[in-house]
């Protein structure tokens, strides 16, 4: 497998440069220009400053966070910790959509939305009503809902971008039954379980989601994708990542991948900045002490949590030693 990160140095001058070492740095330039003996300009690349934060979402999904942090002069090291792969029910999704009707489709993450859209199109774009968790998840549907709003309607989002909020607030009609399709990660938490009066599983056992309630929803869960940790990280990249005062994670899976990666490092006690409460709670349960997360999940709150973690680190570093 290729290295999980590829180093790139930014410079505003378009000059030839040697191939950079591994790792992806974003933020302040790492090079300067000097004049050679013959009067020609030469590129003199200095070692980059240590990163302020490690951003760990899967490849291709860190750009917005990096850009937001750059506005605050925060140096980022991009180190994807997880990648998405097909789940056991990926191929079954189109058949389920073609052969059954649901009152709601519950989508709780951008990746679940992207995977669902592929299956929905393969099924012939049947008419569906979607409930989403979070603005980022809703945006995945923007283009298709505008082009074909009669077939796909994003009709509900809870007051707080959390699965348990959706489960307690999802509207139901006057019918005796309300059928819900829940395409999700195989590693998704069971926050949706309070919807269920009967949970239907063709692959996983019924007790995979415990705790039935009287809300009267009949839920079919399909595990349409899953996450696996990135395995290969070069020593230099890992050394840089460990030196960063803050590691930003967007899921419990990424958090566990980070802890596995640093399992042989003694006394790592820097900060974890989580995208929301679910990941933050997971971090605390795993024994991490310096955990930051916003009350409302999302990019803006996540950035604020990262900035707070960096701020605290700098204050402790600059405080006079007693």
Automatic annotation (TrEMBL):
Annotated spans, Disordered: 9-30
InterPro entries assigned to the protein according to its UniProt record, in alphabetical order: 4pyrrol_syn_uPrphyn_synt_sf (IPR036108), 4pyrrol_synth_uPrphyn_synth (IPR003754), UROS/Hem4 (IPR039793)
Catalytic activity: hydroxymethylbilane = uroporphyrinogen III + H2O
This protein's record includes keyword Lyase: yes
Positions of the Tetrapyrrole biosynthesis uroporphyrinogen III synthase domain: 65-304
Pfam families: HEM4
UniProt key word Lyase: yes
Top enzyme category: lyase
Pathway it works in: Porphyrin-containing compound metabolism; protoporphyrin-IX biosynthesis; coproporphyrinogen-III from 5-aminolevulinate: step 3/4
Key words, A-Z: Lyase, Porphyrin biosynthesis
Biological processes per GO annotation: protoporphyrinogen IX biosynthetic process; uroporphyrinogen III biosynthetic process
Molecular function as annotated in GO: uroporphyrinogen-III synthase activity
Enzyme Commission number, as recorded: 4.2.1.75
Role, per record: Catalyzes cyclization of the linear tetrapyrrole, hydroxymethylbilane, to the macrocyclic uroporphyrinogen III.
PANTHER family in the record: UROPORPHYRINOGEN-III SYNTHASE, CHLOROPLASTIC (PTHR38042:SF1)
Sequence similarity: Belongs to the uroporphyrinogen-III synthase family.
Protein known as: Uroporphyrinogen-III synthase
């Amino acid at each position: 497998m290729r290295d999980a990160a590829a180093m790139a140095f930014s410079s505003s001058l378009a000059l030839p440069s040697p191939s950079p070492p591994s790792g992806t740095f974003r933020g302040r330039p790492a090079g300067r220009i000097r004049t050679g003996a013959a009067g020609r300009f030469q590129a003199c690349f200095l070692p980059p400053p240590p990163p302020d934060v490690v951003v760990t979402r899967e490849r291709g999904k860190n750009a917005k966070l990096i850009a937001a942090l750059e506005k605050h002069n925060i140096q980022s090291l991009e180190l994807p910790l997880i990648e998405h792969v097909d789940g056991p029910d990926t191929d079954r999704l189109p058949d389920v959509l073609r052969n059954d009707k649901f009152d709601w489709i519950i989508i709780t993450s951008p990746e679940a939305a992207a995977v669902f859209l592929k299956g929905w199109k393969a099924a012939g774009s049947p008419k569906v009503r979607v409930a989403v968790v979070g603005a980022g998840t809703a945006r995945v549907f923007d283009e298709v809902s505008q082009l074909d709003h009669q077939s796909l309607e994003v009709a509900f989002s809870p007051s707080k971008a959390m699965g348990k909020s959706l489960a307690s607030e999802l509207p139901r009609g006057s019918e005796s039954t309300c059928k819900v399709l829940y395409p999700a990660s195989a590693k998704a938490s069971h926050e949706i379980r309070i919807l269920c009066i009967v949970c239907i599983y063709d692959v996983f056992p019924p007790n995979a989601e415990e705790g039935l309630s009287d809300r009267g929803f009949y839920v079919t869960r399909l595990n349409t994708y899953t996450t696996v940790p990135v395995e290969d990280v070069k020593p230099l990249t890992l050394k840089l990542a460990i030196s960063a005062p803050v590691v930003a994670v967007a899921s419990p899976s990424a958090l566990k991948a980070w802890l596995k990666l640093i399992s042989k490092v003694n006394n790592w006690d820097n900060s974890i900045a989580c995208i929301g409460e679910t990941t933050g709670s997971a971090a605390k349960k795993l024994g991490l002490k310096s955990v930051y997360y916003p009350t409302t999940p999302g990019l803006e709150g996540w950035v604020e949590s990262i900035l707070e973690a960096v701020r605290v680190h700098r204050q402790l570093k600059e405080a006079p030693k007693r």
